[in-house]
Design the sequence.
């Protein structure tokens, strides 16, 4: 299974969505909240609910 590119949680098969950039980079997201925060260039380390903040 893929991991969410923003929060780090596993994306279960059949859920979430995949975002493909023009250069071919693929990003997986488990919910729209993660996707919108990614588009706004938010840093996942600043949010307590992400895996990146828990690893600090």
Sequence:
């Amino acid at each position: 299974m893929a991991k969410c590119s923003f929060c780090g949680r596993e994306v279960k098969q059949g859920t979430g969505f995949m975002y493909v950039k023009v250069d071919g980079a693929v990003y997986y997201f488990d919910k729209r909240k993660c996707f919108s925060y990614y588009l706004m260039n938010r840093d996942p380390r600043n949010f307590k609910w992400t895996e990146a903040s828990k690893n600090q």
In short: The chain has a mean pLDDT of 93. Residues 2-54 form a domain with the Ribosomal Protein L24e; Chain: T; fold (CATH 2.30.170.20).
